Amino acid sequence: MKNKKVFVITGATGVGKTTIARYLQENYHMPRIITHTTRPPRNREKQNIDYYFETPASFEEKHYLERVAYAGFQYGSSYEGLNHAWEKSDYTTIVLDTAGAVTYARELGNQAVILFITVAHPDTLIERVQVRGDNPDLVTRRITSPEFLRDVKLPEALENTAYVIKNDDWAITKTNIDLIVQDVMQGRALPHKLKLKE
Ligand SMILES: Nc1ncnc2c1ncn2[C@@H]1O[C@H](COP(=O)(O)OP(=O)(O)OP(=O)(O)O)[C@@H](O)[C@H]1O
Ligand SMILES: Nc1nc2c(ncn2[C@@H]2O[C@H](COP(=O)(O)O)[C@@H](O)[C@H]2O)c(=O)[nH]1
Description:
Residues 4-182 form the Guanylate kinase-like domain. 39% of the residues lie in helices and 20% in strands. The radius of gyration is 16 Å and the shape is globular. It has helices spanning 17-28, 56-60, 79-88, 98-108, 123-131, 136-143, 146-151, 170-185; strands at residues 5-11, 36-37, 52-53, 66-70, 73-77, 91-96, 112-118, 162-166. The longest helix has 16 residues, at 170-185. The chain is an alpha/beta fold. It has two domains: 1-31 and 90-198, P-loop containing nucleotide triphosphate hydrolases (Rossmann fold), CATH 3.40.50.300; 34-88, Guanylate Kinase phosphate binding domain, CATH 3.30.63. A hairpin with a 2-residue loop joins strand 4 (66-70) and strand 5 (73-77). The ligand Nc1nc2c(ncn2[C@@H]2O[C@H](COP(=O)(O)O)[C@@H](O)[C@H]2O)c(=O)[nH]1 binds next to strand 4, strand 5, strand 6 and helix 4.
């Protein structure tokens, strides 16, 4: 059990967390832990693949390792989801807001590999979620939420444990993800000692 790891991908809305989780799934066969939410599905999102979409009542029936409110909706992840993913693979991923990432780091210690994703200019994020086709009302609600403002900054609690990845240029991001995966698979996992590509 000790050798199993979860890559916790965190950062503000639109930084590319889901894109990175997909890259890890496609290139390293790391299953993504599906989390629960009361948010309505976006255009192409599917039940039980992108999320377990819940009603407020069904959300409350589950048991969570951690849960948060984000821009007016509920989100939560469970130990069952984590163990189920670890049955399939020693390395798995989860996409969380920074509050969830802090909880995973605290609860799982070095079994949680924290990837904090950022971009040079936060305005890029608004463009990205618009291009993604998000409902304009939900975009406004989200980028004015306290959670968005919190998640653009690396939380103090993760300063010594998170790998910080700038996702402005996807080719550079992929190289850095590959370096980090090798670091972790070789048992090093020391963010401050790994030189990432600029
Ligand atoms: N390096 C990049 N350059 C340009 N566009 C990118 C890059 N990385 C991701 N994107 C695009 O930005 C949009 C947002 O990415 P993604 O959905 O992965 O973000 P996210 O962090 O998961 O967002 P949210 O938290 O809102 O779900 C997508 O349309 C994605 O294709
Ligand atoms: N702490 C948790 N954060 C979660 C969970 N599932 C998703 N998220 C994060 O919430 C925001 C909003 O997600 P979106 O899909 O509506 O854009 C984003 O930062 C996700 O990473 C969870 O179970 N716990």
